[in-house]
Amino acid sequence: MKFEMPNSGSPRSSWFGRWSTSGWMTPSLIATVCLILALGSYEHSQGNLHRLRATSTNHVQPQGPGGQDPIRISRSLRANGDGPEFVSATLLPGRGFNLWQLTASLPGRGEVSLLVSPPVSQAAQILSGLDNDDNGSASTNYGGAFLAPWAAQLTGFPAPGSGVLQTLWEGQRLTFPASIPGSPISTEGLLLARGADAVKTSSLPDGQSAEATFSASSFSGNWPSNTDVTILVELSGHSLDLTMTAHNTGDTSEPMGLGWHPYFAIPSGNRAQAMLVIPSLNLVEAGDRSTGVSSGRIIPTQGTSYDFLHASGTPLGHISLDETYVNLHGSLISDGPIAELRDPAADYGLRVIPLTPNITNLRVIAPEDKPWVSIGPNTNLSNPFGSEWGHTDMSKSGIAILKPGESMQWKVRIEIFSLTGPWRPSHNH
């Protein structure tokens, strides 16, 4: 006798029973799984897989400018230190290794900032690549920006339909971005917004060092050849050594200039009593200050308000400076010319010492209403490809020519000292 299961009267139960015994159940389940996997693969390729997940994994992203975290090198103070000492340096590898902060311990004042810049936490917002930071321009407003493949300003004329500027070098057209849209003035070099390709730190007997390497190629197609730039910063108790090396890795010659644009703070805030020592009695005559183009003439400063050669310093008073000093005087007690910023109210002094002979000039900027001074050691003068320097000999402007495989080095030492204590200067220059 054949027995049959009672019919519940449910259409669903009847359908499911027939489907489950029909032989289609297994293929249908396999097809469903394949469809789900295919959907997941597609959403992953579209960057939407996280929307299908009930939970997601949070990845920590670099928070610094240019997508790279700041690097801080530091040292411990001497146990019986009774003079000023460097404490730390903070650099931005995502923005041309800008020396964003430099701190020191000053007797009676504690740890102070020696460079003018906002807190590191605000750097990414300021150096965003937008608005006033188009092409990295904001990097030259804070800290200490390293400059390559030229230093200071460069002027040009608009390249048709491209929105960039251009100039001529040995019959070749060089292109470069304007500092702001529509301006005939460039940014200060092409390293400002570039991120480092490699960074390393090392220990020193009395501090630390940090080194960044930039495989700049042709600087985004703006330069005739390919270039690697390396920047080394070495921090110790009383000195900060800065070394920049440019190496032509391409197969054709290229022009090259290197420099630095620091904003040295006046710790006391009393700008009028701050004193300068500039080892020169000549400066480049200004032509059009709105563009930074000079007349190309070298004029004397002796006996004028622009004479800061006196070894013990000359008060800034109420003069505003934006000058380029040339024909730098060497020093008998140093490996290079010595420029100084002194703040008697803070018993503090800072020396800027060019250590490579290709540093031909100091660009000094000191607005009357600002508590800072910029002393920029550069290998080239402003607008180095300009007609004011002549078209036949670019060396007059300080621009070097690097052949394939050649390198050039720029090196500067920053020293800290007390005006009255044991680390006071004991020499004349």
TrEMBL record:
<dbReference type="GO" id="GO:0030246">
    <property type="term" value="F:carbohydrate binding"/>
</dbReference>
<dbReference type="InterPro" id="IPR008183">
    <property type="entry name" value="Aldose_1/G6P_1-epimerase"/>
</dbReference>
<dbReference type="GO" id="GO:0016853">
    <property type="term" value="F:isomerase activity"/>
</dbReference>
<dbReference type="InterPro" id="IPR014718">
    <property type="entry name" value="GH-type_carb-bd"/>
</dbReference>
<protein>
    <submittedName>
        <fullName>Galactose mutarotase-like enzyme</fullName>
    </submittedName>
</protein>
<dbReference type="Pfam" id="PF01263">
    <property type="entry name" value="Aldose_epim"/>
</dbReference>
<dbReference type="GO" id="GO:0005975">
    <property type="term" value="P:carbohydrate metabolic process"/>
</dbReference>
<dbReference type="InterPro" id="IPR011013">
    <property type="entry name" value="Gal_mutarotase_sf_dom"/>
</dbReference>
